[in-house]
Amino acid sequence: MSFEVDVSKALGDRMIEARFAVPGGLTVLRGVSGAGKTSVLNMIAGLLTPDRGHVVVNGQPLFDAAQGANLPVHRRRLGYVFQDGRLFPHLRVRANLLYGYRLAQPEERWMTLDEVVAFLGIAPLLDRWPRSLSGGEAQRVALGRALLSGARALLLDEPLASIDPARRSDIIDAILRIRDELKLPMLYVTHDPAEAERLGNQLVTIGS
Ligand SMILES: Nc1ncnc2c1ncn2[C@@H]1O[C@H](COP(=O)(O)OP(=O)(O)OP(=O)(O)O)[C@@H](O)[C@H]1O
C-alpha cells in the first residue's frame, strides 16, 4: 500500500476522521466542504498532529500515536502542492526549485534540476519572478520544487482550483506524467467530478 491512514483529530467542535489504505497511482480525496480533506493532508504531511492513529507511506511509519512515533515534516519525504502554488515571492523560479533540492539529503535526491526542468518543460521560466507567472506555470514550478525535494509521494490540495479551466491542460499533463512515468503515489483533493474521473485511479470519501 502507498498510503495507510487511520487518524482522528478534534478541531474546534468537529471531529476529523479518515481511514483508508490505497495502492499507488493517484487517489482522489473528496468530501463536502469542511469535511476535513485539507486537515487530513496536513496530518499526513506532519503539519497537524492527530489525536490518535497512524500514518504509513510507502511502508514507512510516519506517525504512530500508540508507539509515540512522529517523524518531523522535513523527514517525511512528501511533496505538498497547494491551491495557490505558494512559491517564495522573493526568489526567482530557479532559486525556488533549488530551495527544495537543498533541503533534501544528498542520498534522498532522485532527480536533478536539469531533469525536472526538462520533464516539466519549464526551462523558459527559470529566470522569471513568481509574480510574473500564470497560475498553471506557477503550479508546474511548485510540482518541480516538490520533486526536487526528494519526495517519494505527493499531496495535492485542489491544485487546479485557481487556474482558468481553459488553461489547465499543461498542468493536467504534468500530473498524469508524474503518475504514469515517475510512478509517484499521489493524494489529490478536488471537488470537481470531471477532474476526479480523468486523474484518479481510486477515490476516497472523507467525512461520510
Ligand atoms: N485550527 C482549527 N481550529 C478549529 N477548527 C478548524 C481548524 N482548522 C480547520 N478547522 C475546521 O475543521 C473542519 C475541516 O476543515 P478542512 O479545511 O480540513 O476541510 P476541507 O474538507 O478541506 O474543506 P474545503 O473543501 O472547504 O477546503 C472545518 O469545519 C474547519 O472550519
TrEMBL record:
PROSITE patterns: ABC_TRANSPORTER_1, ABC_TRANSPORTER_2. InterPro entries: AAA+_ATPase (IPR003593), ABC_transporter-like_ATP-bd (IPR003439), ABC_transporter-like_CS (IPR017871), Molybdenum_import_ModC (IPR050334), P-loop_NTPase (IPR027417). Transmembrane segments: none annotated. Keywords: ATP-binding, Nucleotide-binding. One of its GO terms (molecular function) is ATP binding. It holds the Pfam family ABC_tran. Residues 2-208 form the ABC transporter domain. This is Molybdate transport system ATP-binding protein. It comes from Sphingobium vermicomposti.
